[in-house]
Design a protein that fits this description.
Cofactor: Mn(2+); Mg(2+)
Site (Important for catalytic activity): 200
Structural class: alpha+beta
Low-confidence stretches: none
Number of helices: 6
GO molecular function, one term: double-stranded DNA 3'-5' DNA exonuclease activity
Distance between the termini: 23 Å
Catalytic activity: Exonucleolytic cleavage in the 3'- to 5'-direction to yield nucleoside 5'-phosphates
Number of domains: 1
Shape: globular
Oligomer: single chain
Helix content: 10-25%
Binding site for Mg(2+): 14, 128, 130, 225-226
Length: 235
Amino acid sequence: WVQEEAPDVLCLQETKCGVSAVPPEIRALPGLPHQFWASAEGRPGYSGVGLLAKTEPLNVTYGIGDPEHDADGRVVTAEFPSLFVVSAYVPNAGRGLVRLEPRLRFDAAFLAFLRRLDAQKPVLLCGDLNVAHAEIDLCHPRANRSNPGFTPQEREGFTRLLGAGFVDSFRHLYPEARGAFTFWTYLGGARARNVGWRLDYAVLSQRLLGSLCDCKIRSTVAGSDHCPITALLAV
């Protein structure tokens, strides 16, 4: 699928894979020779993100400059001539919301990081943000109001991101689209019934809207409990 899609940049989340363990078939992906991986320090099989690029970035950084969160390997950022591309895996609030407070601290630190980038040049954030922003973004909103990914606090965090000058590209283009989900639990045949959540986003600086051509949810692509999304920009 990656070869058919032929992206200029491929962002991967929850890789659960240290740099030394990246499979050789990924290392050898045609057209994506520049590869950058972040993984959790001392926690194999936890978290992790990757960013693979067709052309070499001007610069690559890891983390968001916050010691509480950077050891988890959740963010890698590549600078290109016209924009920053950020691959991010936002923490889950956890069963019973046991990790909600650390998640909210991450949200605040991450927003500050994105604003610092945006002050330099436009930003494209791609990732599993672990939140369904509005009721339209999950199948059963009423039953999930107190569950991770749909608490008022997490949703407010995403609203603050939008209020800081960023745009949810898919919802900007398709404000009324229903059943547009990117995650389905493996339980109960949820994917076949499209009982899902939209947790994966391409968020961009407002001044990139003129360059936004489309944002597609590739819901037929199998291989994970999430599906890929594709952001198409003319930059």
